[in-house]
Amino acid sequence: MTPIKYVSKVDLTKSGDQHPGVHNRWHPDVPSFATIKPGETVKIECLDWTGNQIKNDDCADDLRNVDLTRIHYLSGPFDIEGAEPGDCLVIELKDVQPLERRPWGYCGVFHKENGGGFLEKFYPECAKAIFDFEGIYATSRHIPHVKFAGLVHPGLMGTAPSPEILKEWNSRESELKEKHQHQHETEVALLPEEKNCHAGSATGDLLAKIGREGARTVPGRPEHGGNCDIKNLSRGSKCYFPVHVKGAKFSIGDLHFSQGDGEISFCGAIEMAGVVTLSASIIKGGVEKLKLKSPMYVPGEVANHYGPSRYLTFEGFSVDEHGDQKFLCLTTAYRQCCIRAIEYLRRFGYNDYQIYLFLSTAPIEGHIAGVVDVPNACTTLGIPMDIFDFDIRPEAEVKKLDMGNCAFVSGASHAVTFDFDKLEKK
Amino acid sequence: MTPIKYVSKVDLTKSGDQHPGVHNRWHPDVPSFATIKPGETVKIECLDWTGNQIKNDDCADDLRNVDLTRIHYLSGPFDIEGAEPGDCLVIELKDVQPLERRPWGYCGVFHKENGGGFLEKFYPECAKAIFDFEGIYATSRHIPHVKFAGLVHPGLMGTAPSPEILKEWNSRESELKEKHQHQHETEVALLPEEKNCHAGSATGDLLAKIGREGARTVPGRPEHGGNCDIKNLSRGSKCYFPVHVKGAKFSIGDLHFSQGDGEISFCGAIEMAGVVTLSASIIKGGVEKLKLKSPMYVPGEVANHYGPSRYLTFEGFSVDEHGDQKFLCLTTAYRQCCIRAIEYLRRFGYNDYQIYLFLSTAPIEGHIAGVVDVPNACTTLGIPMDIFDFDIRPEAEVKKLDMGNCAFVSGASHAVTFDFDKLEKK
Amino acid sequence: MTPIKYVSKVDLTKSGDQHPGVHNRWHPDVPSFATIKPGETVKIECLDWTGNQIKNDDCADDLRNVDLTRIHYLSGPFDIEGAEPGDCLVIELKDVQPLERRPWGYCGVFHKENGGGFLEKFYPECAKAIFDFEGIYATSRHIPHVKFAGLVHPGLMGTAPSPEILKEWNSRESELKEKHQHQHETEVALLPEEKNCHAGSATGDLLAKIGREGARTVPGRPEHGGNCDIKNLSRGSKCYFPVHVKGAKFSIGDLHFSQGDGEISFCGAIEMAGVVTLSASIIKGGVEKLKLKSPMYVPGEVANHYGPSRYLTFEGFSVDEHGDQKFLCLTTAYRQCCIRAIEYLRRFGYNDYQIYLFLSTAPIEGHIAGVVDVPNACTTLGIPMDIFDFDIRPEAEVKKLDMGNCAFVSGASHAVTFDFDKLEKK
Amino acid sequence: MTPIKYVSKVDLTKSGDQHPGVHNRWHPDVPSFATIKPGETVKIECLDWTGNQIKNDDCADDLRNVDLTRIHYLSGPFDIEGAEPGDCLVIELKDVQPLERRPWGYCGVFHKENGGGFLEKFYPECAKAIFDFEGIYATSRHIPHVKFAGLVHPGLMGTAPSPEILKEWNSRESELKEKHQHQHETEVALLPEEKNCHAGSATGDLLAKIGREGARTVPGRPEHGGNCDIKNLSRGSKCYFPVHVKGAKFSIGDLHFSQGDGEISFCGAIEMAGVVTLSASIIKGGVEKLKLKSPMYVPGEVANHYGPSRYLTFEGFSVDEHGDQKFLCLTTAYRQCCIRAIEYLRRFGYNDYQIYLFLSTAPIEGHIAGVVDVPNACTTLGIPMDIFDFDIRPEAEVKKLDMGNCAFVSGASHAVTFDFDKLEKK
């Protein structure tokens, strides 16, 4: 038996838009890069989501400047032989690995002026942490005393939209922007943008059209999946996608070595280049048969596994950090979980940005608890205690350790301790 | 060794307000019912949340009429010897069991005019399912072909608020009501209400005062826990609470034999009377030491355990059922997960109300996936496939089974199939 | 719904042989005590295996004198309606709990002259530890600093033998005794013995016959199960038994709150009185259909759950404690695992008998690794580190704690440290 | 960061004895191949245990002829900087993977005249199955309808013996052979053998000496580990070895993609060439500190994970296949488990050799249950039901599938169904 066939390779010395087999917009007309037969197992290499823009160093300048029109360089699209609109495409993720030639990844907090993140109001600065991969484990010189196994997964997988679906996306996201942008300090939606559009081998008019119409890749979308950032959609998962165009035009990328639920810092998982081993199959007429309006999946049987009693778990409610009462808002509740975890973990010597990056990358469990007890929704955030090399239990004696620092932009240090108690009601 | 001491017993033939050892409001002045010594293990019996209002029958009339001023009959409050404001109260839940003399429980969808639930817009009617307990398992004649082990837990635990905290609660919830009630069809918050206030042995002026000022029990609140409905806060869990008044005045109740994440039908878990075995201890000055602004906990090591690859998992995004684009709203996303699961499961013969009750009670996993990919948040809902006695995998052949029905109010049947496709943009 | 029906109750103030619903021999003619219908869920109370001979105290005199003709007082036999020879009896263990009125159990090392145990050559004395039950947990004043959740199970379940099978048992065990007893210091098999035979309501000639012919209960036997001591055959398990006589005549007893794999100290689990909730069903002709020569089972989904990385695991090989080379002997290998664990754990202050009792009762994992690499078989013994309240990892600093002692016979203390290094080749 | 350093590479076109960095005997004088610094993470390639003797085809001739003097081509020995006798060497297995350039492995039943296996009396012939690796999964055209994730591990790791220990090994194994070989049909121990001895760069007198004195690699041995074949000693495990010579001289090999507990067919796991990522550290004086007479380990947190209720579990007792009563013999008991599993699984269409190979390679759990209930020891064998693509539960309807066949020697087919019932007492 010969080695498994690669249908796509990447060049780590070239930027994303120099690759003919990657694209960074969703559009039915992005040219197919290769064809995969049902049942065939293939390997697909993927760039990191920025297409080689980030360096393994101790400075966040590269991250500060990432242009959101130049991200999510996805491998594909791949035609799946025989797939037609209305079918269900089943992708079996047989493995996801970092590239042997690049045994590291990174996590970043985006600057508030450049996309921000879940806690941008408190942590507006740009920060970066590099993670080294040694076998199944990641460690970071920027977040010491932590080591964890990767629940490696693609942050982004999806089928191409039909023209109708694409139109629907653009319309509903524009509407949101029109109605609600004024209430927000950061972008509420990223609309089609010709600048820096890359669509594989497309050039000229076709490329321009894709740029004008193509949906941006940041949000996951119910109709096809996309940037879902589901940490448990890892090795061994079977994922079921609706097919909207002939061949399905499946794309994959934004690989993560590990991610915490929520991917809270936005560039938030351990971002990496890597290689996926997968096979595809088709359930004819599966959209109707399975009532498949959004992707669904069954995870694999191999995963990090800590035992329920090893999670220190924080509770959050939909009363925000100012003490304002929200109505059954899980988003507010989960933000409070994050804040509680930050306040707890800084006792050991980490600064807030380090913890922000930690919560974004480690195998953190973010669960919905109650969503009907008006007016408070409740969520939980569980931290596996075994990934620290010291004892973080509430009963343990606290010894502050030298935790170093994460990377910031040139010359800066934002090793802050944000005082949440000073916030007042708005 | 003698049997473990009961500090509280309940009478299943009497209503909640006939019990001197239970109360249904949060107030610092609710008289303590008993004292528990640190380190001592005790048993506490609890009424079901309605205080015996629901019958084991096939009619939902009893549920239709539940008055929300007469709910959450909690056992306690209990003074913990030595606890003082600023301490952390550690409750170790050593067991939670149904009462041997009442081996059944119930789940209800509340009528939209009486509280409603997470899917009240589509399922406004009242419905009920009775569950029989046989050892570790529950089954329901109203939701056939399903059997699952209970992850038994108290839906509600908390310490008493200080007068200041109570004031804060009342103020912020009133404010919400003032500002936002007009946008909602159901109550956004339940404010203090003298009617049907029950405060253990309190009578006369004291009772009246508690009724006027006492916080309602429906929402969990960050300062003390309360009605969190965290399904994993089960047997073996250690829970850490802030203490706000001398003795802590700990209360517990609203026991659940099992619950799905979200407790979506509101009366949403398998509600039951039962007995808790617990011990208490105190970390002096723990609020400051642990930065304990909200409860946190470590689950126990005994739990239902299905293996990751046994969960059929649905994805939901913050595009609502009308196709309207919401901004990073996990609540919207989780509602879409629920709808996807309903559409899928009805293929096997269940009607929508049965599935609604099922999702509310079975050990459903509701997880946060991504919460930064503007404008779409993503959540997942995982159903353990092993709790069905038929094959629900996407690959399985579908045979519709006779699924009977759940209980509705006298004479009614709402065995509906809601057509989500007919919803239009608002 | 009324409480679940008890088909058998026990009296904790009376000895085993005063109970008409229990028996201590296997024989087809033991009178049936009650009938269970297929599909019906019932409760069965069980005595502890000695039938109330052991006291909750700090002296092992009671254990020293346990007469092995007066043990295993099993509840039953129960007729299962419709069961006939050749059928498969399916028992679903819906729960196993200690009795609320007796929240404690015990573990004992039997004296070498009275049955001994797996390590009798090194630890010939009698020792005892009492365990207190608080909810799902057990602790022992005789083995401090350890707390674990019970994987509660019946040590013994089985169907009655047919006359032919009984004859086969007696013949093969007699043969063993004849051929090999001279090589052993303790009994190699316990043959039928009229003395202290108890067979429920049987009296006179019938009782005498059962005594003369009835198989002793100590060994599990392939044809029907019996005293298998399988710790994972716990709550939720479905167990499949061959039926050899009309009605199956199912018996159950020897309940364990917890046990380590191997049950090495013989009276080796946490022995307790308790109550089982179970239902029975029948697969007609199941012996042939399932090729069912020995019982098989599927465990339940609720169990203690520590995560693979929480087990400190010792390796043992079939080179015995004298350095003698055995041939692919798993029994020798597992004994070496036990010795390695004893030598390791005594670093923390426990004496050898305490550790012997610990390994016998805690949820220890005993696994077969390799059994073909001539001449050495290899086994492993895994200790869940989370059940200690101090750190037992190899990396941890060792502080000897005051570990008290277990109970011995009046006036004695055998808090020994056996010097395995002094053993010489035989 | 540069890719992780390889300290050893293998050539798949050359036989084991053409590699200067591998050896197939244990001896303190085998020349060290490289040095590893404590804390450094390195990669080590390993040959399959036969050193490239087995082909990916449908004929077992290659396996039939494997000479047991030409096996276990181990990578190493590696000096660990600073290690001295009496220290504890800690190996952290950060990953174990098949080689990308050889995505397949094999399992073999050795012919009874060439080593045999655990069931050699019933299955004396040679058989082979090829497994293809696709990501984390293995499938075999020779055992259809089964797919499982690999719990990849080195079957063999160990430190070099001191001259004294080597002498002890040779003496005790010779003694066994002298005393007991006459009772066995296959070899009870493999003594030193100059023929085909390979010791890395050693030549001439040194090689001859190593051949004359060097211990064979088949058995694991308590003093240093060696061929333990512990399936759970997989990715993420930390393993603690005694050091007996300066530098420790650590060797590793015999990689397995997957193995069932017991590795029953001898060439019994999925044997493969592969690459290990590991780091080493030293606990000075660790042998005395940890009472380390045999290796111990803590598994990693990433593993196949099926949930307890997904194992169909067979019970075995120490009454052998002839009905002869053995005394507390776990080896006999485990053999009965295997036979029960074979009799059960053949209902679905597999022949006995296929099942033998299956039990040897799939993630089968072999556990010790009771080892004190004279005269019967009890073991269990658990099969994860999820690895079949059809339903193997006892309740499922049986449909015989076309199961093809495994490979046998040229021209032969031994697709037998051994009739265990015909065996008579010896």
TrEMBL record, chains A, B, C, D:
UniProt-listed SUPFAM superfamilies: Acetamidase/Formamidase-like
Signal peptide: none
Entry GO MF terms: hydrolase activity, acting on carbon-nitrogen (but not peptide) bonds, in linear amides
Name of this chain's protein: Formamidase
Source organism of the structure: Meyerozyma guilliermondii (strain ATCC 6260 / CBS 566 / DSM 6381 / JCM 1539 / NBRC 10279 / NRRL Y-324) (Yeast)
